[in-house]
Amino acid sequence: MRLVLGILITAVLLFTAVTGLAWWGQERVVFQPPAGPWPLGDGARRVEYAAADGQRLFGYLVTPDDTAHAAPADAPRRVLLAFHGNADLAAWQIEWAREVARRT
User: Fold this and answer.
1) CA 34, CA 32: separation in Å to the nearest integer?
2) Which of 90, 36, 37 is nearest to 61 (CA)?
3) DSSP alpha helices (H): ranges in 1-104?
4) Cα dist. 20→14, 27, 32, 52, 80 in Å?
5) Along the 104 residues of the chain, how does pLDDT read in single tens digits?
6) Residue 94 · residue 43 · CB < 8 Å
7) pTM
8) How do residues 36-55 score in pLDDT, each as one tens digit?
9) Which residue among 26, 38, 42, 84 has its CA within the 20 to 30 Å range from the CA of 9?
10) Alpha carbons 85 and 90: distance in angstroms, whole number
């Protein structure tokens, strides 16, 4: 009986320790950002603002470079808002955004 009780207590302590470590390191497990140096978003306009809670945020604004493809002045303006994925950087999406702007 003592052996079973000792194994049970050890199992509960081990489970508690593993659960506590997983909770403590959850952001490192879920979000694994790439190691620097990070791209600066060259050629795209950086837009910065603060959220309601004061958190500083930024994004990149990409517009068509080729004025030959510019829409007429009375054409409706469109915006495509893209969010990068987990462990991804917004600056990595700039080339994709340029291609979308060029094609549309």
Assistant:
1) 6
2) 90
3) 2-24, 26-30, 94-103
4) 10, 13, 19, 31, 41
5) 889 999 999 999 999 999 999 888 887 777 777 777 777 777 788 899 999 999 999 888 888 764 455 666 676 777 888 887 777 888 888 888 888 888 87
6) yes
7) 0.56
8) 777 777 778 889 999 999 99
9) 26
10) 9
Separation between Cα atoms, residue 94 and residue 89, nearest integer Å: 10
Nearest to 60 by CA among 87, 91, 36: 91
Question: Given the structure tokens 């009375």, which residue do they identify?
Answer: 74
Facing residues of 60 across strands? 46
- With tokens 């987990």, the residue in question is 86
Q: Hey, is 49 helix, strand or coil?
A: strand
The structure tokens listed for 33 are: 């950002």
